[in-house]
Design goal:
Layout (H helix, E strand, L loop, with lengths): L5 H11 L5 E4 L6 H8 L7 E9 L5 E9 L2 E3 L1 H8 L3 E4 L2 H8 L15 E5 L1 H4 L4 E4 L5 E5 L1 H8 L2 E2 L3 E3 L3
Parallel strand pairs: 3-6, 6-9
Antiparallel strand pairs: 1-8, 2-3, 2-5, 4-10, 7-8
Length: about 160
């Protein structure tokens, strides 16, 4: 179930860390392409966040928040290789909402759950301006990729591939 405090927790993290950020109000939207148009930037500047289920072996399952540029997709084979996993797939909606503490379309590139490990593509943290929905469909946030990396402390690995692949 989404946590109504996820937005407040994000803003508190940014404020206590003295990270400059911009809030952008817009029509409710969770689709990457549509929200990028509303915010007025290219999809490559957006953080697309996908919760994955990674089966390392029969007994070990990890939950991974993959963060890739909005104009790319998560490369499941790269995630599989990264974790030497037997299986990688998209998490079911209920698990994703529980771990991300928000609904699909508003998943943050941050984890507030110790069971959810963040892996970000290098092109995400390299963005001078990184946009993402702020745990709400009607509000987005913009920070630098460098500030995002410093605060979220993701594992930075090449995990994105072109949408046409």
């Amino acid at each position: 179930m989404p946590d109504p405090g996820t937005y407040d927790r994000l803003i508190s993290l940014l404020d206590t860390s003295s990270v400059p950020y911009e809030l952008i109000d817009h029509e409710p939207e969770g689709s990457t392409d549509a929200v990028c148009a509303l915010r007025g930037h290219h999809a490559s500047e957006a953080a697309k966040c996908i919760v994955l289920r990674v089966k390392v072996d029969r007994r070990t399952t990890r939950n991974v928040l993959a963060v890739v540029p909005g104009d790319r997709r998560v490369d499941l084979d790269a995630i599989r290789a990264l974790f030497a996993a037997r299986y990688v797939g998209f998490s079911d909606a209920e698990t994703a909402e529980r771990l991300a503490r928000t609904i699909p379309g508003t998943v943050l590139p941050f984890s507030f759950d110790p069971e959810l490990e963040v892996v970000a593509d290098p092109d995400v943290v390299a963005q001078p301006r990184l946009y993402f929905n702020a745990a709400r469909l009607d509000r987005s946030l913009c920070i630098s990729g460098a500030d995002y990396e410093r605060l979220a402390e993701p594992r930075v690995e090449p995990i994105a591939s072109a949408l046409s692949d």
